[in-house]
C-alpha cells in the first residue's frame, strides 16, 4: 500500500467533506438578511454559500490576499487583506465593514460569517498605530503565545474585536462561525467580534507581562483602560441583539478523516481534537502513544489528532508548527520511523509555502545520506527547508479552510 498517497488523499478528501459552504448550508434557512459580512480564511466560500441561499443580498468579504479565488460575487465587495499580521488593507477593510454595519437601521438583519484568521484580516487599531500593532503581533507570535493570549491583547486594542463589531450596529445580528481554536469558544474565534468578552484590560496587560513584552504604547493604552479611562469590551448580557453559533470545528475535520480511512478498510482512532502547547512536548506525547500501541498490532491503525501547537522562535528558518512537529516526531522516533502527515487545514504552515510534511519509515536514513542533521534544523526553526530537501513537503496552496491542524500517524504491524 502506498501510505503516503493514503495519508494525502485522506487529508484532501476530509477537507472536501467539510468544505465551508457545506458546513454553512445547513444553517442558512433563517430570515433573509439585509447585509452579509464575511471575514477570515473561509470568507469567500462562506459568502458565496450565503448569497446562494439569499440571492440579491449585498455582501462584503475580507479574505486573505493570497486566496486562490478573489472574485467578488455579484453585488458584493471584496477587501483582500493580510494574515497573520494586519496591514493597511486590513484597516481599510475594517473601516468599510464598520461603515456598512453602523448604517443599518434598527429592525434590519445582519448576517456575519466568521472564520479563523479574522483577527488579522479585520483590523481597526485603537490606542496604537497599525505599525505598533503589527510589531506587537509579531512579538507575541515569536514568543510562542497561544491564540487565546494574542486575542486577549487584540480585543483591547481594537474597535471591532471583543464584541465591538456587534455593538456598532442597531441591526439584529446573527453570526455563524467556523472554529479554528481549542474548545470552539466564540469569544476567542477571530477575537469574538460579535460576542461578549469576558477578558479585561488587566488581562491583556498580564499577557504582555507573561511573555516579557515591553510595547510601551500598547501598555499605556491598556493601563489607561484598566484605570477606567476607556470603556471595556461588552461583557456577558450586554449584546442582546446578537446571536452567535459555531457551525464547524477541528473535531468535524477529524471525524471526516476517520470516515475516509474507514471506507478504505483502515482502522482509525482519534486521540484528541484539542491539543495545544509546545510543539516539542506534543511530538513527545505522540512518540509515547506510538510506542505504546505498536506492540501486538495485527492490522494497520491510523492515529488522528488535531488542534494547534505553538512554536517558540529561536532562529530565522523557514517552516511552521506542522513541519516542526513532524521533525520533532522524527527525532523522537529515531530509527523506528513511521508513515505520518502533519498539515494545516488552511494549506499554509507558518512562513513556508507548504501545508505540512510527510514522514516515512526511512526519513531519518534519507536525511543522513543527504547530510541533514535534524537538530541543526530544529535549532534554527528551519523544518520547512529540511523537508523540502527530502521532497516530503505537502504543497496545496491556500485551501479556503481553517479548522486547525490534522495529524495522521499510520502504525503498521511488525513483521
Automatic annotation (TrEMBL):
Keywords: Kinase, Transferase. InterPro entries: GK-like_C_sf (IPR037035), GK_N_sf (IPR038614), MOFRL (IPR007835), MOFRL_assoc_dom (IPR025286), MOFRL_protein (IPR039760). This is Glycerate kinase. It comes from Deinococcus rhizophilus. The lineage of its organism: Bacteria, Thermotogati, Deinococcota, Deinococci, Deinococcales. Residues 7-222 form the MOFRL-associated domain. GO terms for molecular function: kinase activity. Residues 302-405 form the MOFRL domain. Pfam families: DUF4147, MOFRL.
